[in-house]
Design brief:
The complex is a heterodimer of chains A (about 150) and B (about 70). By secondary structure, chain A is an alpha/beta fold. Chain A has helices spanning about 40-60, 75-85, 95-100, 130-145, and strands at about 5-15, 15-25, 30-35, 65-70, 90-95, 110-115, 120-125. Chain B has about 70 residues and is mostly helical. Chain B has helices at about 1-15, 40-55. The relative contact order of chain B is 0.07. The chains are: A alpha/beta (about 150), B mainly alpha (about 70).
């Protein structure tokens, strides 16, 4: 049974209030990589080309990348996204509600869910070695019951 | 009086339950103007003056010894 993670974060930008949802039921049967990032965090920025590559190569095989912008100035995040232009999904969590719910212990912080919706792995930080290890784990999860 | 002390103690203890900055709240601390040394060039000038007058340097950081022995 796909475990449902339903988190509502409130986006307070330009005087409007917009509910943002991270609902893993939308990605039932897929491997989901949730990444918490902020534009002020260098390793978070460094992980974007890797996430883009992973998205391009593995989205057809069942990988979904959800990049959650948390604790960031909306203008700074928008500027960074304009530069990088990622094709994976970006979610906004300015007050850190999603980060709190995921028990993030650092930035960047990623959580991997398998096809059954179970939280398989959490990871803090990002460097070249992390990229290799994460890719191996993602490949293993994608291969499960494909 | 005892009740007052106990309530005060409980309030003090309670206020310590949520200390610290969460990882995603460090954006403000990461700002350039929040750095301990917000003007590196000014610091370099000050260091040069200090070295010229005292014939010693260092001692600014916690990591260094600051013994003035070089």
């Amino acid at each position: 049974m796909f475990k449902r993670l339903f988190i509502t974060a409130v986006l307070l930008s330009s005087g409007t209030t917009q509910a943002v949802e991270l609902d893993l039921d939308l990605h039932k049967g897929k491997v989901v990589y949730v990444d918490l990032w902020a534009s002020w965090c260098p390793p978070c920025r460094a992980s974007f080309p890797w996430m883009e590559k992973m998205h391009q190569e593995l989205q057809d095989k069942g990988l979904v990348i959800l990049a959650v912008n948390t604790g960031d100035e909306p203008a700074d995040a928008a500027r960074f996204l304009e530069m990088t232009n990622p094709s994976f999904k970006i979610i906004t969590d300015p007050d850190g509600d999603i980060a709190q719910n995921l028990n993030a212990t650092g930035m960047p912080f990623s959580v991997l869910y398998n096809r059954a919706g179970e939280r398989v792995q959490s990871h803090k930080g990002f460097n070249k070695e992390d990229a290799v290890e994460l890719r191996e784990t993602i490949n293993t999860l994608i291969a499960e019951a494909e | 009086m005892r009740a007052f002390v106990l309530i005060s103690f409980a309030l003090c203890v309670g206020s310590c339950s949520n200390l610290g900055v969460k990882p995603w709240e460090r954006g403000t601390l990461a700002r350039e103007d929040m750095a301990l040394d917000s003007s590196p060039m000014q610091t370099a000038f000050d260091d040069h003056i200090y070295f010229s007058k005292e014939a010693s340097s260092g001692g600014r950081g916690f990591a260094g010894g600051g013994c003035g022995c070089n």
